[in-house]
Amino acid sequence: MTPKAVIEKWIEAFNRADAGAIAELYAPDAINHQVANKPVKGKEAIREMFAREFDTADMTCIPEHLFEDGEWAILEWRDPLGLRGCGFFQVQGGKIVFQRGYWDKLSFLKLHNLPIE
């Protein structure tokens, strides 16, 4: 599966708030490092992170651009509340091995009436 195809499946699972389906797209030792958070290491820890996040807030990923370059996919996204972000996904053997994301955490917390850390 191409990196772009993997991320298209990731978007579908994200928009269903399906942490299990998202986790299946990651390699066992994958790393998900969102710029505003500490890196999350391992498929199970990534599943737990998404499960917590889906329990905390309703989130929707509206893709604006999805690019592919070799083993990398780059996703520029927005959500219905006006937040924007970008994710970089390294895909090897049809699985995400590394993800780096950029988004405005403070605006996210304020829009969802969540406590500011």
Query: Structural class of the helix and strand makeup?
Result: alpha+beta
**Total strands:** 6
| Largest sheet, spatial ordering of strands | 2-1-6-5-4-3
Q: Distance between the terminal alpha carbons, to the nearest Å? A: 38 Å
Shape category: globular
| H and E order | HHEEHEEEEH
Percent strand equals: 35-45%
**CATH architecture tag:** Roll
CATH topology: Nuclear Transport Factor 2, Chain: A
Tell me about the biggest sheet? Answer: 6 strands, mixed
Low-confidence stretches: none
InterPro entries: NTF2-like_dom_sf (IPR032710), SnoaL-like (IPR037401)
Protein name: SnoaL-like domain-containing protein
Domain SnoaL-like: 7-97
Organism: Parapedobacter defluvii
Which characteristics define this entry?
single chain; 117 residues; alpha+beta; Nuclear Transport Factor 2, Chain: A; six-stranded mixed β-sheet; 6 strands; 33% helix
Quick recap:
With 117 residues, the protein is α+β, with helices and mostly antiparallel strands. It is built from 4 helices and 6 strands.
